[in-house]
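Weekly modeling sync, notes
Attendees: AB, CL, MP (scribe)

Item 1: holo prediction request
CL wants a bound-state model with coenzyme A before deciding which constructs to order. AB pointed out that an apo prediction alone won't tell us much about the pocket. Agreed to run with the ligand included and paste results into these notes for async review.

Input as submitted:
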Amino acid sequence: MSLPPSSFTVGSPLPVGSLPPVGIDRLGLATPSYRLPMSVLSDARQTPLRKYLVGLGQEQMGVLAPDEDIITLAANAAREALSGENLDNLHSIVLATESGIDQSKAGSLFVHRLLGLPSTCMAYELKQACCSSTVALQNALQTVALNPSKKVLVVASDVARYGFQTPGEPTQGAGAVAILVSAHPRLLVTGLASGQHTEELSDFWRPNYMDTAVVDGKYSIRVYLRALEEAFARYHQTTGLALRDFARFCFHLPFTKMGDKAYHQLLRHGVGAEEVEAAPETQLVPGQLYNRLTGNTYTASLPLSLMSMLENDPTDLTGSRLGLFSYGSGSMGIFFSGIVQDGYRDALFAETHRKQLKTRPALDLATYERWFDRAKPNENGDLTTELITTGSFRFAGMEGHRRVYEPTSKPAVTNSSAVAVI
Ligand code: COA
């Protein structure tokens, strides 16, 4: 099947009166307050540490405190991305997640209230496994292209849970990335072009009655790589761009070794593979650094890799084209790209993010295992949580089945009896 050519490709000169150069303006980050080092897990599971560090490419995983969840993460990330913004210009806030906290109500409504967003700003939620943030981004780009005075905030927020002693356990994690989309982006002009591959299959899913995922890990790797190849081929058909046109690549990273697999797959089979030589140290590794420290963040994984690339690549990337691949199990793959904007470093929060990732206290195994089971409300739908988070917002519990979120006005109790740090 042939695809119609795109009328607006990334980086092409825009005729007068055409769409504005839409893209990513700001990237905000939130991680859980605590982390579990892979060394603790490897001792407990009697698995060689090298398997985690090298075989999977993971050093640590973020662990949610009992008063943290995808909403508190989303609110913290959104607050950073919106700092200095005129909130009246916000068209909508979209939560992309596969760890939803309600079957009906959009989680972004809680974020809307916590941040005091105007009632003119719409709030909704979007799902398609790990690629819903890219779908939300594409919708946001179109909205902003048609309403250039407006901005859209996409917040990708997730917690990856597989369970104890499962092959997926060392790839767990949590985190949120808020992506502010504008018509004059300070970070990356992406345009609207993308290549997709969609097919129904069962590699990873979470039925409503389960709180951990069901996954056929090896199969999911195979179908991820197939989706990448197909999506890139479509992207080439649409834009004419080949592998030589990309300075860097960022991938969906359920574990960072997946990025190595994806990179080498592209450089073996992508259009123009014969013209380029693999250079993973420069083209791939800077985009894996943060993900090694957070674990899998599902929908936030690709935007986190992009953030990691922009904040850690020692080269000035101004004018460079980055290739981005998003994969959501079930399944859908999307390839798109963006051109890094002049002055991008001034629009990043690099120092803050490095400090945030470095200063999270490490948990011992017993606390990690105790916190894994989330407390349930009583028969009246009531629940109270202790103040533990070091973030700006907390899940205070439930009142009559209603979730209660609040700003943290008191200093967090980082060494309470509930937390054993090592
Ligand atoms: N030192 C170094 N590397 C080691 C090692 C050691 N001592 N022991 C094993 N490894 C390597 C293996 O060779 C393998 O590398 P390869 O993939 O390059 O061949 C890697 O570690 C994984 O080990 P393996 O035993 O093959 O797989 P596993 O049973 O641990 O499962 C996943 C790995 C990723 C399938 C599993 O973690 C999972 O299901 N994760 C969740 C699903 C997911 O993330 N899917 C991805 C697509 S969305």
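Recorded for review: The first strand starts at residue 23 and ends at 30.
Action items: CL to compare against the apo run; MP to circulate these notes.
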